[in-house]
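Hello Y.,

Per our agreement to keep a running log of every chain we model this quarter, I'm adding this entry. I've kept the format consistent with earlier entries: sequence first, then predicted structure.
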Amino acid sequence: MSVAREAEARVGPIGALLSRLTFLAICLPGPVLLAVAMTTDPLRSPTDFWGLLAGGVLTTIVGGGFGVFGWRLVARSRRDARRLSAAGVAATAEILRVANHLGGEDPGLELHLRISGPGFATFEADTIRADDPALVPGAVLAAVVDPVDRVFTITGPIST
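Predicted structure for the entry above:
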């Protein structure tokens, strides 16, 4: 059985295109520096040649790593959204514990949830949400779960 995981934030088609173009742009400077080092006039000093070569290799490795990471993140977000819309089932997520989350620029709440619904075994998972006085232990939230992969997303509070 797979480990429960919250779906990545949904990225639409325009956002995915712009993100992918940005990550492609992050990958490009390294190969450009390598091309300049290898193809320009050989009358430059050895220091310039080795500097361009080392800079090109380093920038290719770092930029390529960030670019591939970002590209995969966008693909995972799109895949999660497709899975949840195609195979997701409505579920409920009961808040078991609430703790302050101080990571990143936006402090929020770390929620420990018990997620249950038809077609899958009840499981527990953690998520981080913006600070909201309605998020207290015992509150019930609406969720959508892919029963096969246990990928979930919280869609909002359950109206009473």
